Each structure stands twice: as structure tokens, then as C-alpha cells.
């Protein structure tokens, strides 16, 4: 059942208290999604039949100065007609994914003069909304497909970092780049932020040269590896996110996970799986003629951020200094998604 709440108050803005209305006890929150939850509670039998409405005080947890239901606050709180419990609270205009909230409840009885008799407030309960589900991610995927553009060939994945990063990989990590936890860039409800371990790679090429660009925000040293070392028929490809940062550029996050790996198992439960031979972002196809090798293409009109979920040995590729600039303004580290962009937002949270 779906409950949409609207504000309500008496004509003079007053709320009266009558002790005989039962106070909600033992509040339980369940079925939490990124933009909804179910709520139920126990009540004493006394005056139960007099209850006409529930008043629900929902606040973001970080709002430590929120006032309880004062007269002037009534229109900003959630008011629901008394319906059988549990009931669903849903609404992307006030619920964001992956956000901590507090909730408290009153029972109320609307009087003939339009005033309300109310119970005492219940205890305050805390809960956190969930990540985007695969349903929401499929909505993002469909939006990303619209602007992906035509496919261009490429042959290498590359990763830019500073010299110290590669020195550390050689000297401390047995010549390997190791996965790290993904930061909080992108959509607020992304199920991979702060959870998925991986190594970021790029594959976009310059339109005029067909080669990787010589500029990078992440460092002047670049590791390049042939595409088939990371992307081949033994790899699963997942759609992870679609976002922008108040600019004309749009980013698509993809995850490359060797089949059966820990990263693959993580993504299988949370992300849309793409056909590696037929999707709008990144493809790997067998050449029908000749030696039967693999050919690779990437989308032209989005910037791809590819997360590879396993360690990568530096011996698989080469490290060299790029000739271009380190454009820090293009960095996506912990980048916040533009919540007002109609191209890359869906109608749940941000």
C-alpha cells in the first residue's frame, strides 16, 4: 500500500493534547528502500477507535535542532489518515537514498471544530535508507544509453597516477596495483560507493588521434595495458552509475569483474549485467576473419570510468610519463552529482 502525506492543521493552528489517546509503542521500521519504508507499532486498546490520524515526525539525523511538533510546524510534518498497519511512507521529495533519519509518531483525533487531540510522542527511532536497487540502476542505464553516442575503437586501458604510486606498487606490493574501496563520487544512492573494491581505469580516446589523451587529472605517470588483459570473454561487465558534476560532461561507471571472482559475486547481487558483445558503452567482440582475435569499442559521448575488481601486475603493461598537463579540475574524486540535471537523474532521491 502506498501512502502519500499532506500537511494538515486546525484553522487557528492549534493542537490540543488529550491523555487518553494511546501512545505508539515498540515502533518497527521494515522494507526499507532508497525512497520508502514501512512503519508499524503497538498501541493500547484504550480510545483506539477515536484515532483518525497519525502524525509522523521525520527528520534527517544530522538535523540536531529539529523541533518536535509545535503549532507552526504542523504543515511541514507528515499527516496520514489512520489506516491498518504497517503502512508505507514513500516520497522521493523528502527521502534520499543512503541517508540516516529519525522518526517519531503521535496518534491524533480530529475534532468537530477542525482541531486535533493528540497523544504524547512515541520514542524516537533511527534508520538509514537503502542504496539504489537494480530497478533504479536500470532506469539510470536507460538514460545513459540515450546519450552514449557512436562506438569508437580502442586497444588499451590506462591508469594515471603519480610516480610514488607506481614506486610503492613495485617495492611494497610485489609489482602489483591493488584494489581499493571506491570513493563517494557519483550518485548518492550508488550501491558500489564505499563498498566495492577495485582499480579505476580509463579507455576513452581522442577523436582525432584514436589514442588516449595526453592530459590527466590523476598524475603524470600512466600505466597502459592491452585491453584483452582485463576485458575478454571470461570477464563480466556491469553498469555501475551515470552522473555529471555541474558540467556538460557525463560519466558512466562500468565494472569489469573476472567471472567467479569476489568482485563478480558482489556485482551479481547489485548491478545490471551487460552483454560484453552488445551494449552502448564498452564492447569486446571476436573477429570473425583472420586470427580470431578480439576487437574493442567504447562510447564516444560519455566519459567511461572502468573499475577492475582484481589486482593488476605491472608486468602486464608499461608505465611512462605523459607529455600533457595534469588538469586537476577534471578530477572525479568524491565528486558530487548534480541533483538538478534532467539527463542523469531519476525520480528517486539524488
Coarse shape:
elongated
> How many DSSP helices?
4
The succession of helices and strands, N to C, reads EEEEEEEEEHEEHEEEEHEEHEEEEEE
Helix content: under 10%
Instruction: Give the low-confidence spans.
Output: 1-19, 66-76
Structural class: mainly beta
- Can you summarize the main beta sheet? 6 strands, mixed
Query: Could you give the distance between the termini?
Result: 24 Å
Number of domains: 2
Mean pLDDT across residues: 85
Give the radius of gyration.
26 Å
Give the percentage of residues in beta strands: 25-35%
Total beta strand runs: 23
Task: Please tag this protein with its features.
single chain; mainly beta; Immunoglobulin-like; 2 domains; 6-stranded mixed beta sheet; 10% helix; disordered N terminus
